[in-house]
Hints:
- The chain has 82 residues and is mainly α.
- It has a single domain, classed as F1F0 ATP synthase subunit C (F1FO ATP Synthase, Up-down Bundle), CATH 1.20.20.
- Helix content is 88%, strand content 0%.
- The chain has 3 helices and no strands.
- Helix 2 packs antiparallel against helix 3 (53-81).
- It is elongated.
- The two termini are 24 Å apart.
Amino acid sequence: MLLTMLMQAAASTISLNSLAAIGAGLAAIGAGIGIGKIGGSAMDAIARQPEASGDIRMSMIIAAALVEGVALFAVVVCFLAL
């Protein structure tokens, strides 16, 4: 559905600037959702095994940093398209 909307937008008079802004917004929203899921899953895991909280926390921070890095890269690419 989103792909068809983007293709229709590209076919109409909407410029590349607005598509790049939409892409940057989608990248930021996706990163927020991903980091939220990582945090929620980590809290569930720590609730199940409190003795492993250090390892879980470290894995959570590494995964969140990777998601944030990919999102930042996507936002930079979208802004370069402007």
